[in-house]
């Protein structure tokens, strides 16, 4: 004899004393899970970076002990290395192109919120990586007697702000492109091709715009390091808080806008 189903158990969310047995997780819960998932998904990349850091450490200490090289300086100029954050989103979303994200519809959050949560998790580890890089650089500088370059306190914020900007730009590409590595490779190949045509009118116009975006007073190099080229000495760079604030504000607004647009796009069917 089949007992009739009780009305309160027939719904999608059974309740006991007014509390759902399987409540949907909140955004913070999803973010915690994504932070753990991204950490696991980047295990091979972590091993490669740790191997490179160990190799460079051994080489630097050996050369210093042999008296053949100066110590490694501890400088915010090294913040340019944070530009590698552009590549992190490509690994965070590796194997999950736009056509392979239908599973997002089964998530407790909407597509845009889920994309934002996964990308935010990648950003957490990216900024942690920047902090670990400077910690390693400081220890290496101490071990090799490299000393500390002159700097202004706000310059230590620049690599983290710059890493955030380039990470969001990379995330926008990874969210909308099925093969983001091809897009980045194509952009690099196009730049190198145009560079061979330097001196011609149309090519120079494009190259000047590209160079301004990268190394101009408000370019990405300034955002990452806080340094701008001295107008009196072409090979000298000096800290410029005003240029850094303006450049960071412009690039941050652009990167957030592009990321928000990419995150809100529905996956292809």
Protein model, in words:
The chain has 269 residues and is mainly alpha-helical. 60% of the residues lie in helices and 4% in strands. It is built from ten helices and four strands, in the order αββααααααααββα. It has helices spanning 7-10, 27-41, 43-65, 88-92, 111-144, 158-176, 180-196, 201-215, 220-225, 241-264; strands at residues 15-16, 19-20, 227-229, 237-239. The two termini are 45 Å apart. Mean pLDDT is 80; it is low at 1-18.
Features:
10 helices; 269 residues; mainly alpha; 60% helix; disordered N terminus; globular
Category by helix and strand content: mainly alpha
Q: How many individual helices?
A: 10
Mean pLDDT across every amino acid position: 80
Kindly, what is the distance between the CA atoms of the first and last residues, rounded to a whole number of angstroms? 45 Å
Q: What general outline do the C-alpha atoms trace?
A: globular
Q: Helical proportion?
A: 55-70%
Number of domains: 1
- Give the total of beta strands: 4
Cα radius of gyration in angstroms: 24 Å
N-to-C SSE series? HEEHHHHHHHHEEH
Side by side, the strands of the main sheet go: 1-2
Poorly predicted regions: 1-18
User: Main sheet, how many strands, which sense, barrel?
Assistant: 2 strands, antiparallel
Strand residue percentage: under 5%
Give a short synopsis of this structure.
The protein is built from 10 helices and 4 strands.
Q: Would you spell out the secondary-structure blueprint of this structure?
A:
Elements: H1 7-10, E1 15-16, E2 19-20, H2 27-41, H3 43-65, H4 88-92, H5 111-144, H6 158-176, H7 180-196, H8 201-215, H9 220-225, E3 227-229, E4 237-239, H10 241-264
Antiparallel strand pairs: 1-2, 3-4
Helix pairs in contact: 2-5, 3-5, 5-6, 5-10, 6-10
